[in-house]
Write a structure and sequence with these properties.
The protein is α+β, with helices and mostly antiparallel strands. The radius of gyration is 17 Å and the shape is globular.
Length: 219
């Protein structure tokens, strides 16, 4: 457990780092999406043990191209707005092993964040890869406006994400730019990875991470 004075220093440094990295986020398609590959990343936890899993699919066929996982120790608690301190090192280590990436879908927010640098943007900038934030809940109150690609989410006039409503699903997904991708393209990529009301690569990564975690705990 981290004592309060030390935790306060860590979070203060993390805030400064998030604001610095937010300025490096690229909100354009760099490079343009040229194939159907897309990777979903998720992490499962049990106390101080975590399993990270990355599943790459061909969104044209929904077939799995690659599935990679790692088991790691966790030393930082979950604190809203600072998810990258807990999950960032695990995902960064995981992505080093992934060969067929495409855009990386992160179960969390990107620029839809108090300091415009949630987990998806943090991973994108640090690893220099295309990332998209896909979350089930908002982190901040927003306004909405209509666009060609659906309802955009704005804060003080700044577009920070989009609502993605899926037929047959009660609650929408909150899609936001992570890094090196436009919001319009991010929404299109996530839409293209939907199967049976779920974002398929994220679902597969979630299932696999929990399976490996259960096996690790049983050993």
């Amino acid at each position: 457990m981290i004592d309060n004075p030390k935790l306060e220093r860590i979070l203060a440094d993390a805030k400064r780092n998030q604001m610095r990295l937010a300025k490096q986020v690229i909100v354009e398609d760099d490079p343009p999406i040229s194939n159907a590959l897309v990777t979903g990343v998720d992490v499962a936890y049990s106390d101080d043990i975590a399993v990270g899993c990355a599943v790459t699919i061909d969104s044209g066929t929904m077939k799995t191209i690659e599935s990679i996982n790692i088991v790691a120790d966790v030393s930082f608690p979950y604190i809203s707005g600072f998810f990258h301190l807990r999950e960032g090192p695990i995902i960064l280590g995981l992505l080093k092993k992934v060969q067929h990436k495409g855009p990386i879908l992160i179960d969390g927010h990107g620029v839809f964040h108090p300091r415009r640098c949630g987990l998806a943007s943090y991973i994108g900038v640090i690893a220099d890869v295309q990332t998209i934030g896909v979350a089930k809940r908002p982190i901040l109150p927003t306004q909405q406006c209509e666009t060609d690609y659906g309802k955009a989410l704005t804060i003080d006039g700044e577009v920070v994400g989009a609502l993605l409503h899926i037929e047959g699903r009660r609650h929408p997904f909150y899609v936001s730019i992570g890094h090196r991708i436009s919001l319009e393209t991010a929404v299109r990529v996530v839409k293209g990875a939907i199967l049976n009301g779920q974002v398929e690569p994220l679902r597969l990564a979630h299932v696999e991470a929990n399976r490996v975690l259960h096996e690790s705990l049983s050993c």
